[in-house]
Design brief:
By secondary structure, the protein is an alpha+beta fold. 25% of the residues lie in helices and 25% in strands. It folds into two domains: 99 residues, no CATH class; 116 residues, no CATH class.
Length: 232
Amino acid sequence: MNNFRKVLRLGAVECDGQPADLFVKAEYKDGQLSITGVIGPLQNGNARGGCGQIDMEEWAFTSYAPGWDAETVAELRRVWSRWHLNDMQAGCEHQRANWPDPTERVEIVTYKLTAAALQAQTRIRSRIAQDVAAFGQCELTEEERALYALPYTTTQTPHADGPTAGRYEVKTREEKAIGWLTQDEHPRGILSKPCEVCGYKYGSAWLREDVPADVLAWIESRPDTDKNPAWV
């Protein structure tokens, strides 16, 4: 397939209560497909709405440009999500076909040691220093060893029993995509997880997947923009 560059206007979408033109640039060069968009580009280089990977946003169309409707816009979004930067795939073909969507988001809770636990660690550290200075050694109980070894922060849920019981409190809560999380960080995490078929570890390299010829032909067949954007 020959290289090409297309600038498309899908129509006008609601932006702060007013319609704004939504433009998309699709560029295929040397085997790589890149798709970006902008809502209401301005002459000063800013935009009234989002820009870049705006396929992740909801679009409330007030009107469609010639050659576009709800069905064709949905197809473009599907192509965009599936084939953008096709030479930078984090997963192998088996993972892309059978694994969960890497953009799936889960809550990550980070815990930190309580003030009381930190004070207890300080007392243990002080006693170690004193005993080593006086006797050349220090003996700790099993409970003291476990407490002393606890990290300041962890994403592992503290157990109701054992050395972590009552030692941690919630520090932060945030959402992250499972494609950026290992299973140590969350049970749903897939980063570095090996493929059951070929053994490839997710995210360990950028893999290339050729864009099907019919997908490229569909993009190239879409009508060129009927308006000249300030930038795109």
